[in-house]
Each structure stands twice: as structure tokens, then as C-alpha cells.
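## Example pair
The file below holds two records. Each record gives the amino-acid sequence first, followed by its C-alpha cell line.
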Amino acid sequence: MRAFPVAQNPLITQIELMASRAWPAREVETLGGWILRADHGVTRRANSVLPVGSLGDIPLDEAISHVRSFYEQRGITPCFQMTTSSEPAELDNRLGDRGFVRELVVNVQISDLRSIALAPPRIPVVLRNSATASWIKTYADAEGYDTKSATIRRGIIGRIALTKALASATVGRRIIAVGLGVVENDWLGLFSIATLSEYRRQGAASSVVAALCSWGLSKGAKSAYLQVESRNQPALEMYEKTGFKSLYTYWHRMLRADT
């Protein structure tokens, strides 16, 4: 793929918007070109501002104050999902001045699906178009989510209007790893790749990724993107071996409790 200077890369906004549509919050409000998302405080993607467009005539300080009010009325800590392409350019510094601390850096990686190095799945993988109770239970157990968090995540997955597939890697009759694929136009987004702790480093996650990428190709996708925390070294290594490369990072600006 052609390389752009990161701050000018049109793919950043494109992928940020696709990922937001692929993980739809219960409430969505727009403020100029900003997208405010809220869903009971569960998952940062569904409970943060995506400042991907211009505020127009809205003063920046007024917009930040509106964001605080929007989230505080819902009992959610105000949070922004930031990239180098966030608008306006001075937003990150202004948020820092107003008590929003930088947290949780995430790598966004992409790959050309036609050239991705996918080995045949070592573990059988089943694909469905909806989340079963056993899929959700494995997802929650693998990631340590409580019942409330798992229920809200199931609601998010159920709201996905785009073409999707939920992958389950199985041993015997037990689901040991899961993943979610969402296709929009010629892009495949990979989400919620999770493996039960006792089955990690045995090829379960890579089998899920291989199955979802093959499915994405069958649905017309040509490229794939995924998001992985910068501190998750095992996942970064797995995706690098597959052929994914980091395009950019995003980080969160979350309001300090004492502000």
C-alpha cells in the first residue's frame, strides 16, 4: 500500500469511522464533526468521543464543556479517542490543559488480504452470523468480563448492521477461542479475538484470524484492519507474523476524577 505521512493519511479517518460503525454504541450524538458515543460505560470505543471532523462555528471550549455534560449526565467518565488526525489540531493539548490525561495507546494495523500469510487453521473454526450464549461465555471468560459487561457487549454485537461473522475455534464440543469479523465495502475489521487462558499459544487465535480473513475475502474484502493494545506483545507478534503492519496509533484522553 502507498505510504502517507501519518498526519495526512486519509486512511486514519476512514478506519476510525469504519471501526466505530462496526462496534455501534447504544447512543450516538453528533457535535459538528465529532461523534459522541455512550453505552453504560462498557468499552472505551463505545463510550468516547471520536473527533474526526471539524466543529465548524462551535468554539472548542464550548464543545469540550458539552462533552463533559453529555457523559456526566450518563454517569460515564468523559473520554476522547484521539489520533494525529483528530480535529481541531490543538485538541490534544487543550484536553491536557483541561484535566484530560492520556491513557491506553492502541496500535491500528492493516494488511492486504490477498497477500496475507495465512496458514490453514490448526483448530477447527465454525462461523455464525450471530452471537450464541456459548460464544459470549467464552469471550467473557477469556477476557475476564463480568455479567453486566458481557451483556452490554452482546448488545453491541447484536446492533452491528454490517455484514458480520462470529468465529468459534473448538476442541471437542468446547469453544476455546472466538473472534468477530465485520465487512464494510472492501475492508474487513477484526475484533474481539480472545482465547481461554489454558489454550493460549496453541494456534487457536491464529486459526480464528485465518478463518475470518478467508471469510472476508469471500465477501469481497481486499484489506483488513485490527486494533491491538500496544502493551499486548504476544498479540502484536502474532499479527506481525501474519503480515499485519501498524499504520497509526490512537490513545484516550480521559478526564481526571479530581477535575
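Second record, same layout:
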Amino acid sequence: MKHIKKVPNDTTLLQFLTTEFAFVSLSTIKKQLRLGEIRVNDKKVFTDTSLSKDDEIRIFLPVSTQKQQSMPDIIYEDDMILAVYKPILCSTDVHLAQWVKKHCAIAMPVHRLDTNTKGIVICAKTIDVQNELTVAFKSNQIEKYYHARVVGKLQFKTDKITVYIFKDAKKSKVFVSDTIKKGYMPATLEYKVIAEDYNSSTIKIKLITGRTHQIRATFAHLGNPIIGDGKYGSDKVNREYKKSFPMLTAYKIKFAFVASDYKFISSLADKEIILSKDKQFFE
């Protein structure tokens, strides 16, 4: 599908495209660039280039990307933070960060979600707020809640699970153990089953620690991988459910700290930010 865009100010091609098309992965944009599917002022370009205000950009995107055209959306804002809904295929560090800066030039994400996970991302509007939120996240004083749909029925309807996770950066994957090993870090979460059918369960998750791929790897380790997860899940099940992305949503953030512990974010104490129902669950 062809898209035509006008450049609002001087920038670079990749910066412009990753902001305008937050629903498209950076790798897809670069591939279209290599294939000559991007034109600047009606001339094909094959590498990143400088753009000037009012340049016209034409990009041809694969039909498959049109299914994921939901864009980031600000769901809460005050003087300190933006709470942004991040859709699937939107990178926190690239697409979302650049999109947020269009709304507030100094805003920056304080934590991240996997590119293929949708949900709430908190962005700070000042350095002081960023520093305090970073401390609060690292000390588990900001609670993160998720909805997920997993394969099969879980052994317990509610449980608190601690496993040990090793991150292999070269393989971009983590490995899970029930017992502590060298290089493995403890990872804890709580869950509650809220719905079941014959071969799947919808669960509510409270993340206690924030390890890479923790939720996806933990439930795969339990034998109940998240439906749609191509890295830790079942290709057969994913094909049966026709899901290409994990059925996982970060639907709620709670600022569970004591107001007097912080100077700049004290007014956020006990506040909850929750996604609307239409964004919480899955199609």
C-alpha cells in the first residue's frame, strides 16, 4: 500500500519514517528502503538521507503491515508524565520515543515493553522526574499488571512463581531454571486465572521483578506458553489460533510508593493508570 507524507521540518529519512509509521518495524522500513520502495520528491532513494521541510515522501509498505496500524495514544498526562499506549510492532526505544517527542520535545520513556507486546509505557517530562521514576521502577515501587492468554489450563487458579532466568544476549533469548545457577537471576510474578476454555486460559499477572521476556519465558517453562509467541511458544498452536504476536498486554500501572519518599513525583503516590477495555484484551 502506498503512503504519501509531507515533511514538517528538517530531519532525516529514517527519523521521519519511524515516527510517522510507529506501527511498522524498523527492519521493515530499512528493507523497503533497500528495495527502492521509498521516494523523496518522486526520486527513489536506497539509503538514509537528509530531508527538508515540505519534502514529499512516498513509501510502499507490505500488505501485512496494514493489519497492525494502531498508533501510540496518550492515555494520561500531567506536568510530570505521559502515559502512552504502545501498540504491537512499535519499538519503545525508536518508534515510541520519537513519537512522544513530537508531543513533548523533552519527554522520554522510563521503562520499555517488547516490540511485540502492547500496553502502557510511562514517559517522564523532566530529568528530575525521570531519575525518580527510574529509582521507583528498579525498587519495585511501581507495579506493572498484564493480561495474557496462554495455552491450556494452569495447575493452580492463582499462584506466586519464582524462577531463575539467564539472558543470552547473543541469541536474544532467555533461559529458565527452577533452581539457582551461575548467571541466573531470580524472577518473580503472581497470576490469577480469570477465564478458561477447552484449551486456553486468560490470566491477570502482577510482575514483581522486571527481567527480559520474564512473563513469556516463565509461562513457556510451566508448559503454558502465551498464544502467538513465536520465540517461546508453539508454532502449531499459534497457527491454530492464527496469532502472529503474543497475546500479552501491559494494562495497568500503579505508583505504589510513599509520597514522602520522593520530591518530584510525590503526587503520583497510589495513582493507577489503566487501559480502556478495548485495548486491554485481544482480537
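Notes on the second record: The mean pLDDT is 91. The chain has seven helices and 17 strands.
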